[in-house]
Structures are given as structure tokens and as C-alpha cells.
Design goal:
The complex is a heterodimer. By secondary structure, chain A is α+β, with helices and mostly antiparallel strands. Chain A has five helices and six strands. Helices cover about 35% and strands about 20% of the residues of chain A. The longest helix of chain A is centred in the first third of the chain and has 24 residues. By secondary structure, chain B is α/β, with parallel strands linked by helices. Chain B contains ten helices and eight strands. Chain B has a four-stranded parallel β-sheet with strand order 2-1-3-4, with helices on one face. A four-stranded parallel β-sheet of chain B has the order 6-5-7-8, sandwiched between helices. Chain B starts with 6 loop residues before the first helix and ends with a helix. The chains are: A alpha+beta, B alpha/beta. At the A-B interface, α2 and α4 of A face α5, α6 and α7 of B. Chain A: InterPro entries: DUF6162.
């Protein structure tokens, strides 16, 4: 006589395999998330630096862009003529912020002076309205230009070197560029 | 029955175009071909290279870059370029995908904003603690001068035989651009005011207004091309009244009932700037449109003078 065991209808084994597979997926996902490197938190700027995007007033942002553009032109003039252009020459070129125009008054009414430094030149602008825009220094040496700010109607130390500027409470303006920041 | 082209056909076309040899589109030997995505960059590069190189817009005139979707023939055009000049901060994001799909996925890219101090995005795009930037850096004389210097330097590196000419052309062009601003400021000197409380319909004009020491008090449009809801509109009108806004700057070629409603409800004067994204590509387009924008700004400031 032939006996055959017929199991009752059910899906215990399938359920078991599905549950095991789901468990494996959950464990591997948890491992992947847990082991993923945490992105580095943005390091705060050093005390002597200020961010052009978030740390400046509207007038200072405009002046900073102008000084960066002026730095390019002044460097080209120094190369072409073998000397730094005077303030009068920059104004005659309609080069902001050295040209005296209505926007200069709206952006702090800076009084500009020129000085030679050890290996370069500096153009300092003392603000007449520090609440609108602080005083500024554009320094150029053979390696490029940098721009410093202090929210006071104050001339920079002479010579305007890093240590002296920092000690006097000036801050170097920095800007960041990330290609495709919204991509 | 759908009349839309089949997506597979489009993809096949794009791949076929990308696979075609670059030489098929190459310019005569010795004359470089530089691509651009937006109208202002066409003007910049055309003025920098003069006759020494060809400037190739990869988007045909008439397409709005805000709503542009890459087409196979546009991707195909990239295969014949020696480099491409990009805004690179949000206004031509499509270009990265196009280059990747082209016959030259490693095409040299000139990031024209690399040396521009960028501003945070305005309006609804203002998020992530200032990390999202305003991509309209070309709507400013100073930023254009900075971009022209960067582009000339980078193109000179790629084409050393013409580097000196590119640098000289860039300086001459920048001088003309600066003169536009100087002319506007001369007109402003007789207008009697240099301060305004400003709102804009589109968050594109911060860079231009910063050049004149002006700050945008409110941006009306939630995002480009998206009209505000009635609740947002009511809030905007209340904000403008509270901030005592004197002038609203809108966008040319952008008629809208809600702009008219704001003007009617608040009585604030309305002026329109050009976004410089329409019309045919032309070397002098940027100068023409910026001169018009500066005239508009001077007029607004003059009419707001007490």
C-alpha cells in the first residue's frame, strides 16, 4: 500500500525565504548607511578672514567686486608700463571704485590713497560711512591681489602687511567658487 | 495618437550624433572653435577672440535657456568644439549632460565665474545658508569684466598663439563695458538721488543693483517662470508696503497680470530690465542690452528723486 504525505496548503517556506531576504537587505542597508563617511563639516573661517558672500554688506559686496576687477587692470598696467598707475590715472580710466561718481558716495564715500609696499603696491580707501561699507585695502604683489576690510573710518597700518593688518583688526575678504554649485 | 517624438528615437539620434567623428564638424585647421551656452557669453567670447577663432552657440537663438532641453543636433555641435565657456553656476546646468553625451566628453571647460565674488540666491532659491548662489552674474558690468578676464586667460592657455591678442581684446572690451557704467553714473550725477528701496520680480538683478550700492528688499517671483499663489501675492504686497518699496524692477518681454496687480495695489513705479537671453547672438548684444538696463536704472533713480 502506497502512503503519501500531503502537506497542508501554506507558504511557510516561501515566507521564511522572503523574510530572510528582507532581513539581509535591511542588514546590508544598515551597514552601508552606518559605514558611509560623514561629510566633513565646513570649517569655520579663521578670525582674520571674512566671507564675501555672507559677511559683507551690499555696498561692500559691490566694492569688493570692483576692487577685484581693478586689481586685474592695475596688474596689466604695471606689466605694460613698468609702474603702478596713480589714483588720478585710475579715475581717468573710469575704473571703479577709484572714479568719483554718485555710486561712490552711496557706497561709503571712500577717500583713496596709494602706497608702495615691500614688493608691491597698495591702494587704501578710508570710509566716510563705515555703517554702509568699511574701509578697504587692495594690495598687489607679483603673485596676485588681496583685499582687506575693517568696519571703521580708519587708515591701515603702514606698511599694510598681513601681521600688522590682522593685529589692527582688519580682515582679508575671501570668496569661494564651486563649479556647478546647483548641479 | 501622440505626435510627440518617440523617446527611444531621440536617444538613438543623440547617441548616433555623439558617436560621429569630431573631424566631421571640425573648423579649418588653425582656427579654434569655442562653444557658448548663453547670449552674454557669446558677446564676451566674440569680443575676446575677434577673427582669430569661431564662437559657436550650442543652443539655437530663440530657445529660452531656463526651459531648454538638449537636442541631438545641439549635442552633435559640441563634437566640433575645442573648448566651451560656461556660466557654470546654475544657468546652463544642461551643458554638463550635453558634453558627457557628446563625441568629446573631456572637452575643456572654461568656468567663467571662477574669479567672480558670487552672491547668495534670492527669493525661494535662497537656502542652504548662502551656499546656493545667484547664477545671473552676467547682469553686471563689474562681474562681466571679471568673467572676460578669466575667459581670455583660459582661452589663451588653450590657444597660446593668440593669447596676447585675446588679452589685449579683453582689456579693450572691458574698457568699453566700464565706460557704459561711467556714462550711466554721469547721467545719475544730475538725477539727484543715489538710493532706492527696490523690489524685483525676478531674482536676477542683485549683481547689477549692488554696483550702484542698492539692495533688493523683496523678490516677488517664487522661482523663474512660476507665478506666485494668491496668498504669496498678498504677502508680497503687504511686505512691499511695510518696507516702503519705491521701485519694482520686472523683466522685459514678461507681461503678467500679477505684476500689474502689484503695481495697481501698491502704486509703486514699475520698470523692466533685460535678462539678455532673447534674440539673435551678436557680439554687441551684451553692450546694447546692458546700456538699456543702465538707462532704465538711471531713469528709475531719477524719477524716484525727491
Amino acid at each position: 500500500m502506497h502512503h503519501q504525505i500531503v502537506r497542508r496548503a501554506g507558504a511557510e517556506r516561501e515566507t521564511l525565504w522572503v523574510a530572510l531576504a528582507a532581513g539581509a537587505i535591511l542588514v546590508s542597508a544598515a551597514l552601508a548607511v552606518g559605514l558611509r563617511a560623514v561629510p566633513d563639516a565646513e570649517a569655520p573661517l579663521a578670525a582674520h578672514l571674512i566671507d564675501s558672500r555672507t559677511g559683507l554688506t551690499a555696498a561692500e559686496q559691490g566694492l569688493y567686486a570692483d576692487l577685484k576687477a581693478a586689481g586685474e587692470e592695475i596688474a596689466a598696467l604695471r606689466t605694460a608700463e613698468g609702474r603702478a598707475p596713480t589714483l588720478a590715472e585710475l579715475a581717468a580710466e573710469a575704473l571703479p571704485p577709484f572714479a568719483a561718481d554718485p555710486s561712490a558716495a552711496a557706497r561709503g564715500g571712500h577717500a583713496w590713497t596709494f602706497a608702495k609696499t615691500g614688493d608691491g603696491v597698495a591702494y587704501a580707501g578710508v570710509s566716510a560711512a563705515p555703517e554702509l561699507a568699511g574701509s578697504l585695502v587692495l594690495r598687489l604683489d607679483g603673485h596676485g591681489a588681496d583685499i582687506w576690510l575693517k568696519r571703521a573710518a580708519e587708515a591701515p597700518p603702514a606698511p599694510p602687511e598681513d601681521a600688522a593688518l590682522t593685529a589692527a583688526g582688519w580682515k582679508r575678504i575671501v570668496s569661494t567658487f564651486t563649479a556647478g554649485v546647483t548641479r | 495618437m501622440s505626435i510627440l517624438p518617440n523617446r527611444r528615437l531621440i536617444l538613438a539620434g543623440a547617441l548616433a550624433a555623439a558617436a560621429m567623428p569630431a573631424a566631421a564638424f571640425a573648423a579649418p585647421a588653425g582656427r579654434r572653435r569655442f562653444g557658448v551656452t548663453l547670449h552674454p557669453y557669446y558677446s564676451y567670447v566674440a569680443n575676446i577672440v575677434g577673427d582669430a577663432a569661431e564662437v559657436v552657440p550650442i543652443i539655437p537663438a530663440g530657445f529660452n535657456p531656463h526651459a531648454y532641453e538638449p537636442r541631438p543636433e545641439d549635442i552633435q555641435r559640441i563634437g566640433g568644439l575645442d573648448a566651451i565657456v560656461l556660466n557654470g553656476i546654475g544657468h546652463d546646468d544642461f551643458a554638463g549632460r550635453m558634453i558627457a553625451a557628446s563625441a568629446k566628453p573631456s572637452l575643456p571647460v572654461v568656468e567663467s565665474n571662477a574669479d567672480v565674488p558670487l552672491l547668495p540666491a534670492a527669493g525661494m532659491a535662497a537656502r542652504a545658508a548662502g551656499r546656493v548662489v545667484n547664477p545671473h552674474s552676467f547682469l553686471s558690468i563689474t562681474n562681466s569684466v571679471l568673467q572676460v578676464a578669466t575667459i581670455a586667460r583660459e582661452l589663451g592657455r588653450l590657444d597660446p598663439d593668440n593669447a596676447a591678442a585675446y588679452a589685449a581684446n579683453a582689456r579693450a572690451y572691458s574698457r568699453r563695458l566700464r565706460q557704459l557704467r561711467a556714462d550711466a553714473l554721469t547721467k545719475l550725477a544730475t538725477a539727484g538721488t543715489a538710493s532706492l528701496r527696490v523690489a524685483t520680480i525676478h531674482g536676477a538683478y542683485d549683481y547689477l543693483l549692488r554696483e550702484f550700492g542698492l539692495e533688493v528688499s523683496a523678490v516677488v517671483e517664487p522661482a523663474h517662470g512660476i507665478e506666485p499663489s494668491p496668498a504669496q501675492l498678498a504677502e508680497t504686497i503687504a511686505t512691499m508696503r511695510k518696507l516702503d518699496v519705491q521701485v519694482i524692477f520686472s523683466e522685459l518681454n514678461f507681461p503678467s497680470a500679477y505684476v500689474e496687480m502689484i503695481r495697481r495695489e501698491t502704486g509703486i513705479r514699475l520698470y523692466a530690465f533685460s535678462h539678455i537671453s532673447h534674440g539673435d547672438y551678436a557680439p554687441d548684444l551684451f553692450e546694447r542690452e546692458m546700456a538699456r538696463n543702465l538707462d532704465t536704472l538711471v531713469l528709475a533713480m531719477a524719477e524716484a528723486a525727491p
